[in-house]
């Protein structure tokens, strides 16, 4: 994909997300001025950059949205939930197009028709609200301008400007009408000139070629390239009525005499600060122009370059510079030499270079940045693969470093050089420290705030609660809590399911809530915090809670538990049954949730990310789901245990403790074994049996590792305990990936491979 | 016939519609040097574009009042540029 487009896609995703976020904030607090300003700017920026690509439908939708946000910003138009729905829908569509652009380099075929529908819908809804149709300016914003666009000097003759100024001085205000019909309008039976000449109370009239007029040889008589500008003393409403069928092709700008005087007296600045994108395009054109090509293609090449450069400048808001390029391009085409155009582009680039120097000079003050301008992000966009590569290298460094202590031991034991061994250990200390810092630094790159996932949920809650007819207040806490990117990304699906479940099953309708004496508006809270090396996320609602009796009965009906278990299961354990596959208590299957997938998806996703899930609920009071996730998936803490002369790794987060018990204290329970731990009977499993290895040597004492898996405490008999260590866990790949019971391998400092066990799977 | 070639001249009669632009273009490419639009009552945008692009001189005052008032000045002075503005591309009233 074209690098420019890739950059646009990445930027667009961010901007759309911010816009959606601001839109919701605005719905909550309509007077939130920074939010509307940010929203307007996001959409405006996006629209501006989209103009560089062949994505007219996308630009049109953004343009319509921009007009609306401007009406909100400047005329205090209040957003109703319906209007927010519609604008969100428009932004969603833009998002889908952006993803399509990413994959296919072009918009889908039906984009134009979809855009038409959306734009009409947007304009209709908001036009009705404001009591007047919103003019859809192509080049300028609707409403009154304090300064006329400097282009009027270029469009109109001195006489025309004079007539306009006089009339403005007399009547207070005149209108500048700019009408840019689309290129294919002749095919629709339109005659733009005829329409333009019907503008009432004309004061001055001008025709402009969108690019310079082509030579007769290359002129397509059926392609409309003319645009019209006119001054009129008519009222806006008359002008809008005239152009009512082509609102998106015309802009109507109210001007006072003072506004007209502005550009007439101000010197027209030729140089313009260029955006990076425009700059890149100009440089590219310059390079293209200097490339030799077949003579017969020269004119075409020049024309193409001039068009691209001029369009880029137009988009960057440098209309003067664009006109300059167009003129040079026409000259180049006429003489069939690239020099005039190449020189013009080079001069522009030079001007742009000089500009910062001039700006630094206090004698030429620059217009102050608009208040609340988004600061340029001081960040790099880096391909995740590069960071992953770095992480892998750090992992290898850690392994290589861990071999130094073994080397030191060999130097001492095998070769008897104690001094050398000491020195190696010293050096090891240094390398170890650097490696740890390096590891920390790379992990920090991958850290992301939880807010990244949280911010996608308010939208979901809003849409769902409207759909379900429930009132829900979403409270988010601790969105700044950070965790590894992979962990954060694995969070979205579980959170989505949990919030959906809360809204669908947990939260009652306002009427039910009021009948129970609860406030009509329910509260769902999402809270994140760091606890040790874990991120804890809690989703809490104050809904009807879970009736453990119903759960038990359902689970029994569905064969998830047998009759014996039904009579002994505790309420807490019953609550956890909702995480079993195929479980759903919803009476009806809705399109929101209730298909019996969902909570087991949540559990699996959380386990995959190396986390734990727990649910507590009180009937009538509410439900809390708690997720414990590792801060980082890259480094795992394991404890090594010995068995049959081999080492195995057990994930540290499962381990509750280690103990030695007398063999005589093991009791047989049915076919299994158990022992007593703090007055509780804990099942005892023999790891050797689980792994089909030789049993540990019989002795009076046995080593038991106490682990907690899915809320159950289990004792594991091992031969001996090893050390705890941090390892870079590599999942089993290829043929080995199908071997159950292992979550991966890690390299030990002495070159041995440590197999890390997946106890959940082994014990099941 | 709304676009007629008479020796070096092109006569624009009555309503010049969108399809006349092509004939007009052909005649101009064939070397016509002057357009007389005295009897023109309607000039389609496409025809105007051809005249503007050709930069050809136009004589007479069209019957259509708006054309005479607003478009004729744009075409009269050996368009496109006027003294007050040296830019060649835009045409001014």
Summarize the structure.
The complex is a heterodimer of chains A (764) and B (93). Chain A is α+β, with helices and mostly antiparallel strands and 764 residues long.
How would the blueprint of this fold be written?
The complex is a heterodimer of chains A (764) and B (93).
Chain A (H helix, E strand, L loop, with lengths): L2 H26 L4 H18 L5 H20 L5 H24 L6 H20 L12 E2 L7 H4 L2 H14 L2 E6 L12 H6 L4 E8 L16 E7 L3 H7 L7 E6 L1 H9 L10 H15 L7 H18 L3 H17 L3 H22 L23 H30 L4 H29 E3 L1 H4 L2 H12 L3 E6 L4 E3 H22 L3 H6 L6 E10 L2 E8 L6 H10 L5 H6 L2 H6 L22 H10 L3 E7 L3 E9 L4 E9 L2 E6 L3 E8 L4 E3 L2 E6 L2 E7 H4 L10 E9 L2 E7 L1 E9 L13 E6 L5 E5 L1 H5 L1
Parallel strand pairs in A: 1-5, 7-9, 14-23, 18-20
Antiparallel strand pairs in A: 2-4, 2-5, 3-4, 6-8, 9-10, 10-12, 11-12, 13-14, 13-21, 15-19, 16-17, 17-18, 19-20, 22-23
Helix pairs in contact in A: 1-2, 1-4, 2-3, 3-4, 3-5, 4-5, 7-10, 11-12, 11-14, 12-13, 13-14, 15-16, 18-19, 19-24
Chain B lengths: L2 E4 L2 E8 L3 H10 L4 E10 L1 H10 L2 E3 L5 H12 L17
Parallel strand pairs in B: 2-3, 3-4
Antiparallel strand pairs in B: 1-2
Helix pairs in contact in B: 1-2
Please tell me about this protein's structure.
The complex is a heterodimer of chains A (764) and B (93). Chain A has 764 residues and is of the alpha+beta class. Chain A is built from 26 helices and 23 strands. The two termini of chain A are 48 Å apart. Chain B is α/β, with parallel strands linked by helices. Chain B has three helices and four strands, in the order E-E-H-E-H-E-H. In chain B, strand 1 (3-6) and strand 2 form a beta hairpin. In chain B, helix 1 runs parallel beside helix 2 (45-54). Classes of the chains: A alpha+beta (764), B alpha/beta (93). Chain A binds chain B through residues 153-160, 181, 186, 191-194, 197-198, 202, 204-209, 212-217, 219, 221-222, 224-226, 323, 326-327, 330, and chain B through 18, 21-22, 24-25, 28-29, 42-50, 52-55, 66-67, 69-71, 74, 80, 82, 84-85, 87-93.
């Amino acid at each position: 994909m074209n690098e420019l487009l890739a950059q646009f896609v990445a930027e667009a995703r961010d901007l759309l997300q911010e816009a959606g976020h601001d839109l919701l904030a605005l719905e909550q607090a309509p007077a939130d001025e920074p939010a509307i300003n940010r929203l307007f700017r996001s959409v405006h920026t996006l629209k501006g950059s989209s103009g560089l690509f062949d994505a007219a439908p996308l630009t049109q939708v953004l343009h319509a949205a921009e007009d609306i946000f401007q009406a909100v910003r400047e005329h205090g138009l209040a957003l109703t939930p319906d209007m927010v729905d519609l604008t969100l829908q428009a932004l969603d569509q833009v998002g889908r197009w952006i993803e399509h652009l990413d994959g296919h380099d072009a918009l889908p075929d039906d984009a134009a028709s979809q855009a038409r529908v959306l734009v009409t819908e947007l304009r209709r809804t908001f036009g009705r609200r404001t009591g007047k149709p919103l003019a859809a300016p192509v080049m300028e914003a609707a409403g009154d301008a304090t300064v006329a666009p400097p282009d009027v000097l270029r469009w109109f003759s001195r006489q025309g400007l004079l007539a306009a100024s006089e009339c403005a001085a007399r009547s207070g205000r005149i209108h500048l009408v700019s009408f840019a019909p689309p290129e294919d309008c002749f095919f629709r039976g339109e005659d733009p000139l005829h329409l333009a000449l019907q503008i009432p109370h004309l004061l001055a009239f001008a025709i402009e070629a969108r690019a310079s007029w082509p030579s007769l040889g290359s002129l397509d008589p059926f392609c409309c390239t003319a645009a019209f500008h006119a001054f009129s003393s008519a009222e806006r409403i008359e002008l809008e009525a005239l152009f009512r069928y082509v609102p998106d092709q015309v802009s109507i700008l109210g001007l006072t005499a003072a506004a007209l005087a502005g550009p007439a007296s101000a010197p027209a600045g030729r140089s313009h600060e260029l955006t990076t994108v425009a700059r890149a395009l100009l440089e590219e054109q310059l390079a293209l122009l200097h490339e030799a090509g077949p003579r017969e293609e020269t004119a075409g090449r020049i024309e193409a370059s001039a068009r691209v450069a001029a369009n880029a400048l137009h988009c960057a808001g440098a209309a003067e510079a664009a006109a300059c390029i167009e003129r040079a391009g026409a000259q180049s085409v006429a003489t069939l030499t690239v020099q005039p155009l190449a020189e013009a582009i080079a001069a522009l680039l030079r001007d742009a270079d000089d500009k910062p120097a001039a700006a630094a000079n206090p004698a030429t003050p620059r217009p102050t940045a608009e208040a609340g301008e988004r600061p340029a992000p001081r960040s790099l966009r880096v391909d995740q693969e590069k960071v992953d590569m770095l992480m892998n290298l750090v992992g290898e460094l850690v392994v290589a470093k861990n071999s130094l202590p073994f080397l030191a031991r060999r130097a001492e034991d095998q070769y008897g050089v104690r001094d050398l061994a000491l020195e190696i250990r010293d050096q090891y200390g240094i390398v170890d420290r650097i490696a740890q810092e390096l590891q920390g630094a790379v992990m920090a790159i991958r850290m992301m705030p939880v807010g990244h996932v949280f911010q996608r949920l308010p939208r979901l809650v809003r849409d769902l609660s409207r759909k379900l007819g429930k009132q829900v207040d979403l409270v988010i806490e601790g969105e700044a809590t950070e965790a590894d990117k992979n962990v954060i990304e694995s969070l979205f699906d579980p959170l989505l399911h949990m919030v959906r479940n809360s809204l669908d099953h947990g939260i009652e309708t306002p009427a039910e809530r009021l009948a129970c004496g609860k406030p009509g508006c329910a509260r769902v809270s999402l809270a994140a915090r760091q606890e040790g090396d874990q991120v804890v996320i809690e989703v809490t609602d104050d809904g009807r809670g879970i009736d453990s009796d119903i759960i038990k009965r359902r689970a029994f009906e569905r064969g998830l538990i047998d009759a014996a278990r039904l009579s002994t299961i505790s309420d807490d354990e019953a609550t956890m049954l909702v995480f079993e596959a195929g479980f759903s208590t919803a009476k009806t299957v809705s399109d929101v949730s209730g298909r019996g997938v969902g909570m087991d998806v949540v559990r699996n996703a959380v386990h995959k990310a190396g986390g734990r899930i727990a649910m507590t609920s009180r009937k009538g009071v509410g439900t809390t789901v708690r997720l414990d996730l590792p801060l980082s998936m890259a480094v795992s803490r394991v404890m090594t245990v010995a068995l049959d002369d081999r080492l195995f790794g057990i994930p540290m987060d499962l381990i509750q403790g280690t103990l030695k018990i007398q063999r005589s204290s093991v009791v047989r329970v049915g076919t299994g074994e158990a022992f007593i731990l703090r007055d509780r009977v804990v099942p005892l499993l023999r790891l050797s049996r689980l792994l089909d290895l030789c049993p540990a040597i019989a002795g009076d004492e046995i080593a038991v590792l106490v682990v907690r898996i899915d809320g159950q405490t289990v004792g594991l008999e091992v031969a001996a305990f090893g050390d705890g260590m941090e390892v870079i866990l590599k999942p089993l790949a290829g043929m080995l990936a199908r071997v159950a019971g292992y979550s991966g391998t890690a390299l030990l400092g002495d070159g041995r491979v440590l197999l890390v066990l997946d106890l959940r799977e082994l014990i099941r | 016939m709304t676009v007629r070639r008479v020796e070096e001249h092109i006569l624009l009669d009555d309503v010049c519609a969108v399809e006349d632009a092509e004939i007009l273009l052909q005649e101009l490419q064939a070397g016509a040097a002057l357009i007389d639009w005295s009897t023109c009552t309607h000039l389609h945008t496409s025809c105007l574009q051809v005249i503007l692009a050709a930069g050809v001189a136009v004589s007479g005052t069209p019957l259509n009042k708006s054309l005479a008032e607003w478009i004729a000045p744009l075409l009269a002075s050996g368009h496109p540029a006027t003294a007050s503005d040296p830019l060649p591309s835009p045409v001014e009233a």
